[in-house]
Amino acid sequence: MLQDALGIPHDGIKIGKIFSGGKEIDAYINLDEETLVHHILIIGTTGSGKTTLLKTMLSQNINAIFFDRQGDFVRHLISRGEEFSVIMPSVTMMINDVPSSRASIELGTLFAERYNCSMPVSGDIRDNEIILECDKSIVHLIPYSINFIKVIDYMHKLTPYMSSMARVFWPVIMNNFKKGIDKIAENIALDLSLPKERIESDIYKLLTPSSLIEKDVKVPLQKKVNNRSSPTYYSYVEDYIKIDTSKLFRHIIGNEASTLKQLDKTLSSLNLAPQTQDAIIRVLRSLSEFGIFNVNGTFELDFQRLKKKTVVDLSWILEYTASVEAIAIVAYSILSDFYSYKDKLYKKGNSELTILALDEAHEYFPQTKDEESKSIIEGLLNRLMRLGRVRKISVILATHMPDDLNPLVLQLSNTKIVMRNEENVLEKLGFEDYADILLTAPAGLGVVRSIKFSDVVMKTLKEI
Ligand SMILES: Nc1ncnc2c1ncn2[C@@H]1O[C@H](COP(=O)(O)OP(=O)(O)OP(=O)(O)O)[C@@H](O)[C@H]1O
Ligand SMILES: [Mg+2]
Predict the structure, then answer these.
(1) Helix and strand tally (H, E) in the chain?
(2) Is the C-beta atom of 373 inside 6 A of ligand 1?
(3) Is the dihedral of CA 111, 106, 220, 214 positive or negative?
């Protein structure tokens, strides 16, 4: 009756019980699909119970992808004995001295050691997954890294941290660079009587940010080839072809028009100012240092094949790069790909609700002064939250620092769950009427304000 009086839906995921007269009463608060696709924001200071609430949601029967920076959600699902997928963004430093044929097993072993799972053997690798037993649960582990060539055209949109100059020139640089590679592949194909497409795809498979600035691409060859004339931007060395990708790149951004013209008459140098060239090289250098692209042993990510519940375990990137930028690039790339996947399903007319949850949301969607970074962050938020709604995406975000969060998040989250907070935060959020409860609320106590029902004080569920 109380649920009905307050307009609380009867179905959906349970988040807590109504709290009244100093105690919780036996009436659940549920978030139904309609409420969920209008997105949820959880705000509370340290220790107020945000992560616990996210775990409670994850314990229920939902399709979900949870982004995890500390392994909290991985451990939670293992402790529940569930069968789930883990996307494990990996970095090259994790497999430094490991032969590429053993790289997948090595990544699986690192995961198994951290979470006390059975040690993987090659038979555990099946269809781009490593199957691990962790306690009583089964983990479908997908070591993952971004394929650089797939994002190269919109690299400037994947990181909110690229300098604005670098960003302006990125598309034209890439256009020229790919034209150059195309021509090189054509020349090699002529030398070797092989299809051009194959050479090109071999080059692209090996291309990383560092191939643009220092390390050239070495395409393995079946048999030795003698250097014919002196080709431009490549040479045959023993059993591989050395493609001078970094030289090509530097000639394009600098002023080496004459060599470029030898390769392709239509290519020219962009003649960028030295500071701009430096800025671009700097970006590529830090991208290359992160080691997050084309990591040996990682698999292609196919959203369709994920289990109902998936955790993106970002703890590895955090540990090895200690960089918020690296985390943002990987998270953005997965989120954009996921949006495209849901968009395709939507156009085919069959999409089920999926919850995307990000704890510490200010780390992914920070408030920034720089207009360009802001537009990148807001572009992604708009897709996930505004356009996501009909595509059955529900975004659930938690933060203890609403001031550090992009303001669009507040605007697009139609349900707010406010837990213990300081007075000025309560005022900003329009929850000052609840100050007597919320200033000193114990963990798990909060107020829910939703488009669908009246404000309600609740105690979150700790176990489900
Ligand atoms: N409903 C609840 N009932 C009882 N204890 C709770 C409840 N919710 C959370 N707690 C406890 O409060 C503590 C802090 O919870 P939690 O880690 O979820 O907070 P948090 O808001 O995520 O904090 P942080 O900002 O530091 O990440 C934990 O020990 C947790 O078990
Ligand atoms: Mg937390």
Answers:
(1) 20, 17
(2) no
(3) positive
User: Which structure tokens are listed for 131?
Assistant: 């199957």
* Nearest CA owner, ligand 1 atom 23: 47
* Statement to judge: residues 20 and 76 lie in one domain: no
pLDDT by residue (tens digit) across 82-102?
999 999 999 999 999 999 999
Kindly report the average pLDDT of the chain as a whole number: 94
CA distances for 290 relative to 176, 207, 229, 299, 384, angstroms: 25, 15, 38, 18, 26
* Chosen domain end from 270, 290, 310: 290
219 contact partners, CB below 8 Å, separation of at least 6: 199, 202, 203, 206, 240, 241, 243
pTM: 0.94
Ligand 1 neighbour 383 (Cβ under 6 A): no
Ligand 1 pocket check for 443: Cβ under 6 Å: yes
CB of 51 sitting under 6 A from ligand 1? yes
Which CATH number do you get for residue 51?
A: 3.40.50.300
- Residue 54 alpha carbon, nearest atom of ligand 1: 18
Q: Give the number of the ligand closest to the Cα of residue 359.
A: 2
* Domain extent for 246: 149-290
For residues 93 and 103, give the distance between their C-alpha atoms in angstroms, rounded to a whole number: 11
**Share above pLDDT 70 across residues of the chain, in percent, rounded to a whole number:** 99
Atom of ligand 1 nearest to the CA of 55: 18
Which ligand does the CA of 417 lie closest to? 1
Domain count, the chain: 3
224 falls within a domain: yes
Task: Confirm whether 169 is domain-assigned.
Answer: yes
The verdict on 154 and 283 lying in the same domain is yes
CA-proximal residue: ligand 1, atom 14 (nearest): 47
Q: Is residue 296 part of a domain?
A: no
Q: Could you give phi then psi for residue 138, rounded to 5 degrees?
A: -115, 125
CA 29–ligand 2 middle distance (angstroms):
21
Residue nearest to atom 26 of ligand 1 (CA): 46
Dump pLDDT digits (tens) for 22-48. 999 999 999 999 999 999 999 999 999
**How far, in Å, is the centroid of ligand 2 from the Cα of 294?**
31
In order along the chain (464 residues), what is the average pLDDT of each group of 10 residues? 86 95 93 97 98 98 97 98 98 95 97 98 94 98 96 82 81 95 95 94 95 94 74 90 96 91 92 91 92 96 97 97 92 96 94 95 91 89 97 97 94 97 96 97 97 92 84
Give the position of tokens 């995406």.
393
Query: Is 86 inside any structural domain?
Result: yes
